[in-house]
Every structure is written in C-alpha cells, then in structure tokens.
Amino acid sequence: MPRLRISGQPTVQLQPYHSYRFGSSPIVELQIEHESVEQFHGALGVSPDFVVRLVAWSGKVYVNGEDVAAKDIGFEIADDRGFVELRFGDVPAELYFESTMYEDTDSGYEDGYRGAPPFD
Fold first, then answer.
1. How many C-beta atoms surround the C-beta of residue 90 within 10 A?
2. Does the pLDDT at position 13 exceed 60?
3. Domain coordinates of the chain in residue numbers?
4. Burial letters for 39-61: b for 16+ Cβ neighbours within 10 Å, e otherwise?
5. Cβ within 8 Å of residue 62, ≥6 positions away
6. Does 3-100 carry CATH code 2.60.200.20?
7. Residue 43: its pLDDT value, please?
8. What is the largest CA-CA distance in the chain?
9. Beta-strand (E) ranges in 1-120?
10. pTM score
11. Which whole-number Å values give the CA distances from 113 to 64, 69, 105, in the listed order?
12. Integer Cα distance of 19 and 76 in angstroms
C-alpha cells in the first residue's frame, strides 16, 4: 500500500477505499500546522489498485514540482526508489509506492523497500 510522509510527521500507510482530508484544521485526518497550509487544503483517496487521487481544495498542491488541481498518482510517475515528491503549500511530503505492489518492479528486498525514507 502507498505510504505518505509529510515533513515532521510520522509516515501514514494509506488504505484503499479511504479518503484523507489534509489541512491545518483540527478536524482533518492529516493535520499540517504551517502558515502556508489552508484549513481545508485538499484531500486524497486510494483506489483498490493503489492509485492515489490527490485534489487541491483551497490551497496549492504540487506533484513532482507541478502545480496541480487534481491528479491521479500511480507507481509509473515515481522515481527509481518508488517515491513521488509532493508539496502542500510550502510543506514537503513524499508518497512512497512499495515495489511489492507491482509484480514487474521487484526491488530484490523482501519487504519491497527501495531506499532510506525522507526527512529522518
């Protein structure tokens, strides 16, 4: 399953069929306390085939440096380690796709891990 890591926060394993709101509001699932993040900044959801749908509501969202309003993110746009660079306002984040989710991208590691996690 894809994992999301927002700068300064623990990694979250994203579950298929779930939606996650993110922003500075205390009622969202992924709270980000930063001046560049709106209360209801955006949302993301995960499909059964592990594609992440990312939607900006009232704030800026970037995928691999591109400003997007909405984007479907799959393993095919990840780098060779399985990471997709995200940014919510000025807050960096990364989406990680385990290679074991995809038969043709085996990393050689039993758990599919392909590199050191960011922000450590």
1. 12
2. yes
3. 3-100
4. ebbbbbbbeeebbbebbbeebbb
5. 68, 85, 86, 87
6. yes
7. 98
8. 41
9. 3-6, 12-13, 19-23, 30-31, 42-46, 52-56, 61-63, 66-68, 70-73, 83-88, 91-96
10. 0.79
11. 21, 30, 11
12. 21
Site of tokens 């990694």: 11
For residue 101, what are the CA distances in angstroms to 26, 66, 79, 104?
Answer: 32, 25, 15, 9
Please give the order of strands across the beta sheet that includes 61-63.
Answer: 12-13, 3-6, 91-96, 83-88, 61-63, 66-68
The pLDDT of residue 52 is 97
Please give the Cα distance from 2 to 57 (Å, whole number).
22
Give the tens place of pLDDT for each residue, 36-82: 999 999 999 999 999 999 999 999 999 999 999 999 999 999 999 99
> What gap in Å lies between CA 114 and CA 112, rounded to an integer?
6
| Type of residue found at 37 | V
